[in-house]
Specification:
Strand 40 and strand 41 form a beta hairpin. By secondary structure, this protein is α+β, with helices and mostly antiparallel strands. The protein is built from eleven helices and 46 strands. The relative contact order is 0.07. Helix 1 packs across helix 6, helix 3 crosses helix 5 and helix 7 runs parallel beside helix 8. The strands form eleven sheets. It has a six-stranded mixed β-sheet, with helices on one face.
Length: about 850
């Protein structure tokens, strides 16, 4: 017989299996209720019943990619009917069989031994499971009804349509303690004991549950696993004095519905997913009839705003559960209702509230190990791009974000994605085994803090006499005794399954930290460009920065933005269109001006927020193709189609004939050193000196006609290019008279090699890889380091001890000593090149991203700026 070891409690994100667990538990409860009218659906007799154990064995097997094998008759020879019927593995097989084959009896019932004897099953082996199927069908019917959600813009819910809907009138008193628990609604005795211990020891002013009532959020489960446990805890631990409870729905609350005729007030008909949460959990603060709480504590919606009496802090709880169950096994980072986003923004920008915000959600903003988005869904693997896009602009006002969904305590690196503190508190009632390695990170970011806060393991005997180690429960307490620096303490609590002796109880503080009132990981700003600026590949956008201004270009338009706010300052917020230009604009800051070039002309603009036209190149360049510009030795040069033109920087005049000719018919990249003009074109590098139009030195880097980038660093000139199988870089003297080292990057690429320097070493970006090279010789100091999840054009930038690389929609901060990735600005964009620049205080990037608008994805081009010391 197969031996199975099951956790003390088993849940699954699969909607159908969750409903099946609820159906079996409901059947067992109703069956036992006949002989014990005082029984509750979460009583030990229910949880330890063979059928409930069986469905958990079944679900645990499916969740771990296993199947429960059909029992062998030899394992039951000589056993009585009750012994056979109480066998957990046999019942687990029956649960699996009936769930997968609801119309046929299990084949196991017809097994006979060698003498033709039939196994001695009791009647409930057949009738009990078929009765469970009937209940399951009813639950599925409720689950197919419309989801419940209280939208503040719905006049039937909120007749006045005021955004004060959802704001809790009750305020937290001075010095309040707030208890945060997550994934707590198991109904198990250890979850109940945790609440009693916390109330007795710390006397919180309120309790916030950030979601999940198991198995499927049915009204009976909401009543027994949430409301009744709180009622009992207040009776036993607080002399019957209730404490306000505020809750968020997780994914499980949106699996089942309300199957009762109402528990308080007017009877209601059965309602769809979410119904149990709305009818049972939301009105919990009105359930204490003997010692009622004030009406001000009532929670009106699945999202809420709760503030402190001094006005220094607010909690904003959001509903990520509604969109989290679109498939049997959701793999999409759920968004919020668009109207709810508007509601949250209203609270974050409320001029009457100048304090700091603590965000709360059931689902994660990011994860170290959980795949938030499936491989076929737009978005990052370990980041909820929707939530980040909603709240990132307001992170300067956000001190912390607490979430659940994963069943462990996660103390993450501060500052990830620009968030000061992100914490996972998802094991207040449900926990993971040591074998599940919950602190292993597959995220390319080093998300867990060092040292990690890893809870001690408790050995819990269940079906395996040797025991299985489980991480303990945890919760968090925020203490507002110091309102300028509230302290957060994380506690652990022992775990034990129903029906086993409880271990010695102890609340152990594991870690304490302080919430800051300012965000040292200031994300900066995001400025969306007008929709007509969207580029499907994002290869036609460029960005430069100078002091208090950032300049971006797209489709013939130049935008001047404030470095501190990102506000577009020119063209009444629409940028200025360069005459006759509709495509890519390249820019350079030099000589106290902003020089911009399109495909026909060169322009000189004022280096300020107005970008006034100083001059537009009076002579049109002969070709209609991209123009690159460079300034040096008092002159401005423009390169186009193999030719280089000298332009008078005072008025834009130029000769009608080329100043220099490369002999190539290709894009020209330029740099200037002293009186020497260096050009890269068609796989070659050219050095021009004096007034002769002929180059003085010419070197062929590759036989292929590819773009050549050129850079001056120290006493050397560097040229880089690529061919179909490798990237190439060469070093030359400043005048081109001598050649020095070279490097071949052994990586298959189809794009440019881009360069930067820290004034000593050379850094190269090569199709999703980076390398550090010694000056002159170009020997590897380190490299090639594969830093990107995807591959494409790679920009590199060095600033104040940090190396940055951008590729395929993302920007990364790298350790300049070894290339190791430390932080990432994740746009979840796979739409090509991401130009980057440094504006003196932050890294600026221009990206085109998939953004959810009215439930559909659209491309949106925007500029972002983040602190360069904390790129996240």
């Amino acid at each position: 017989m197969e031996k199975s070891t099951t956790p003390p409690y088993v849940t699954t994100r699969n909607k159908e299996l969750s409903l099946w667990q609820s159906a079996v538990t409901h059947y067992v409860y109703k069956s036992l209720l006949k002989d014990n009218p005082a029984l509750r659906s979460n009583s030990p007799e229910v949880f330890t019943h063979p059928m409930v154990t069986a469905v958990n064995l079944h679900v645990d097997a499916i969740s771990n990619g296993r199947r429960i094998q059909r029992p062998a008759i030899k394992d039951f020879i000589g056993k009585s009917s009750p012994e056979v019927s109480n066998d957990k593995n046999l019942q687990g097989y029956l649960s699996q069989h009936f769930f997968e084959n609801p119309q046929t009896p299990p084949g196991a019932l017809s097994i006979t031994d060698d003498n033709g004897s039939v196994l001695p099953y009791s009647d409930y082996d057949v009738t009990a499971w078929t009765d469970c199927l009937a209940i399951y069908a009813a639950f599925r019917g409720i689950g197919s009804l419309p989801y419940v959600y209280y939208d503040w813009t719905d006049t039937t819910i909120n007749p006045t349509l005021g955004e004060s809907f959802g704001v809790i009138d009750y305020v937290l008193p001075a010095g309040a303690k707030v208890l945060i628990i997550g994934d707590w609604g198991t109904g198990q005795s250890d979850a109940s004991a945790l609440i009693s211990e916390m109330i007795t020891t710390y006397n919180p002013a309120c309790i916030i549950h950030i979601g999940d009532t198991y198995y499927s959020g049915l009204s009976t489960e909401c009543q027994d696993n949430i409301v009744q446990i709180f009622l009992d805890a207040f009776t036993h631990a607080n002399n019957g004095v209730p404490i306000p409870v505020f809750s968020l729905p997780g994914n499980h609350e949106y699996i089942g519905g309300d199957i009762t005729a109402g528990i308080w007030g007017t009877p209601v008909p059965a309602s769809g997913p979410g119904g149990g949460f709305y009818s049972i959990i939301l009105p919990i603060n009105g359930a204490y009839t003997s010692n009622p709480l004030p009406s001000a504590t009532m929670q009106a919606a699945s999202y809420f705003c709760l503030r402190t009496a001094d006005g220094n802090w607010q909690f904003l709880g959001m509903d990520t559960g509604y969109y989290s169950v679109p498939t049997p096994d959701p793999t999409i980072g759920p968004p919020l209702h668009s109207t709810e986003v508007t509601w949250h923004v209203n609270k974050l920008t409320d001029p009457a509230f100048t304090g700091n915000t603590i965000l709360l959600s059931h689902h994660q903003l990011y994860s170290g190990d959980a795949m938030i988005n499936g491989t076929t869904d737009p978005g990052s693997n370990y980041l909820n791009d929707h939530l980040l896009s909603y709240f990132r602009p307001y992170f300067p006002k956000v001190s912390a974000w607490f979430w659940g969904h994963e069943h462990s305590l996660g103390i993450f690196e501060d500052g990830l994605y620009g968030l000061p503190i992100g914490r996972l508190v998802g094991n207040s009632g449900y926990q993971e085994a040591d074998s599940e390695a919950p602190f292993t990170s597959n995220n390319l970011l080093n998300v867990y803090a060092s040292p990690e806060v890893v809870l001690d393991s408790t050995v819990v005997p269940y079906n395996d006499p040797s025991g299985t180690p489980w991480y303990q429960h945890s919760c968090a307490v925020i203490d507002f005794a110091d309102t300028a620096a509230p302290a957060v303490t994380y506690y652990e609590y022992p775990v034990w399954p129903t029906g086993y002796p409880q271990p010695p109880l102890a609340l152990t503080p594991k870690f304490t930290e302080t919430l800051a009132v300012t965000n040292p990981y200031f994300i900066g700003w995001d400025t969306p460009l007008p929709n007509n600026m969207v580029s499907s590949t994002n290869n036609f956008n460029n960005i430069v920065a100078s002091g208090e201004y950032v300049y971006a270009s797209a489709n013939g338009v130049v935008f001047a933005m404030s470095s501190t706010t990102g506000a577009i300052l020119n063209g009444s917020g629409n940028g200025i269109t360069l005459p006759g230009e509709t495509g890519e604009i390249r820019m350079v800051v030099a000589n106290g001006y902003l020089y911009a070039s399109g495909s026909q002309y060169v322009y000189c603009l004022s280096l300020d927020g107005n970008t006034n036209m100083i001059w537009g190149n009076p002579a049109k360049l002969p070709k209609n193709d991209i123009i690159n510009v460079a300034f040096g030795d008092g002159s401005l040069y423009a390169g186009q189609q193999g030719n280089i033109y000298m332009i008078n920087p005072a008025n834009g005049s130029m000769s009608s004939t080329p100043t220099y000719e490369t002999g190539e018919n290709a894009e020209v990249r330029l740099t200037i050193t002293g009186s020497t003009v260096i050009a890269g074109a068609n796989g070659d590098i050219f050095f021009f000196a004096g007034t002769s139009s002929k180059y003085t030195y010419h070197y062929e880097i590759t036989i292929y006609d590819n773009i050549v980038n050129v850079m001056v660093a120290g006493n050397y000139v560097y040229g880089s290019t690529y061919d179909p199988i490798k990237g190439l870089m060469c070093a030359y003297s400043l005048d081109g008279s001598e050649t020095y080292g070279s490097q071949s990057f052994s990586v298959t690429i189809g794009d440019e090699v881009r360069m930067c320097t820290d004034d000593t070493n050379i850094y190269a970006g090569v199709y999703g890889y980076v390398a550090c090279l010694a000056p002159n010789t170009l020997d590897y100091i380190w490299g090639l380091v594969d830093f990107s999840e995807n591959y494409g054009l790679t920009n590199v930038l060095y600033s104040n001890g940090y190396l940055f690389a951008s590729c395929y929609g993302n920007v990364y901060q790298l350790n300049a000593n070894n290339g190791k990735k430390s932080r990432k600005l994740d746009f979840a964009a796979d739409l090509g090149n991401v130009p980057i620049a440094f504006n003196g205080a932050g890294i600026c990037a221009i990206v085109t991203d998939n953004v959810l608008v009215n439930d559909s994805y659209v491309n949106q081009t925007f500029i972002t700026c983040v602190s360069q010391a904390n790129l996240t």
